Amino acid sequence: PQKSLTAADIRGRKGQTPLVCLTAYTTPVARLADAECDVLLVGDSVGMVLHGLPSTLPVTLDMMILHGQAVVRGAERSLVVIDMPFGSYEEGPDQAFRNAARLMAETGAGAVKLEGGRHMADTIAFLVARGIPVMAHIGLTPQAVNAIGGYRVQGRGADAERILADARAVADAGAFSVVLEKVPARLADDITADLAIPTIGIGASPGCDGQILVIDDMLGLFDAFKPKFVKRYADLATDAAQAIRAYAGDVRDRSFPAPEHVFTDEGGQS
Ligand code: KIV
Ligand code: NA
């Protein structure tokens, strides 16, 4: 069996061919994505995408552990990264280490991700020094939606300096890569040129060292809303609705089950 990629491998891909990253929350989807991906992120987006929550804030460590275990079972090649959920790391380095260690030990994932720039630098350095690779996440940080007042573009105009300072801080703290979410393309390119670690864009720029999307968004499976930065590569929600409608019709007119789906007195299990 192939050895899976490590955080150090991902770090070493700076300036090389773009890193292919997707979220995954379950074993079967992880198996599908693993063949093409470098990173599978068990995002806290799982709360909105699979659990119907109104934001990522109610997502718990237990939810991340359960979905993390499922994804690790389905991943052979990709690095599995697990999001630290809201409230599990912001108190300080000790709390962050305790919970990151649980995520790593109980799932077998290769790294964690947490949101925040300069104010998280000490925590990132603390985790990295103790054996936990950290992917940073700056720009739009959805766990801060209540403080920001919405999911708007970050770093426009003079605000670019703030995001660049965050990028430098997380890189200096030892993060092995950084997600840039919903920032102007020009700023994403400047940060990518400035940092020695890979930038992974979502609503950022094709010039980033990699790209990530929420898999249910790009498959057209989650269709409650579609951010501008999402490209739909399939329309699985429509396909699923059609399949369910066809099944319902077959049940109502008794064309399902057909003879090949039912059992006779003879023939054992077949
Ligand atoms: O939770 C998530 O899915 C994420 C990515 C979109 C970066 O944080
Ligand atoms: Na997230």
UniProtKB/TrEMBL annotation:
InterPro entries, alphabetized: Pantoate_hydroxy_MeTrfase (IPR003700), Pyrv/PenolPyrv_kinase-like_dom (IPR015813), Pyrv_kinase-like_dom_sf (IPR040442)
A molecular-function term among this protein's GO annotations: methyltransferase activity
Binding site for 3-methyl-2-oxobutanoate: D44, S45, D83, K113
Main location: cytoplasm
Signal peptide: none
Pathway connected to this protein: Cofactor biosynthesis; (R)-pantothenate biosynthesis; (R)-pantoate from 3-methyl-2-oxobutanoate: step 1/2
EC number: 2.1.2.11
Protein origin, superkingdom: Bacteria
Residues noted as binding Mg(2+) in the record, renumbered to the chain: D44, D83, E115
Record's keyword terms, sorted: Cytoplasm, Magnesium, Metal-binding, Methyltransferase, Pantothenate biosynthesis, Transferase
Subunit structure: Homodecamer; pentamer of dimers.
Protein name in the entry: 3-methyl-2-oxobutanoate hydroxymethyltransferase
Lineage of producing organism: Bacteria, Pseudomonadati, Pseudomonadota, Alphaproteobacteria, Rhodobacterales
Gene: panB
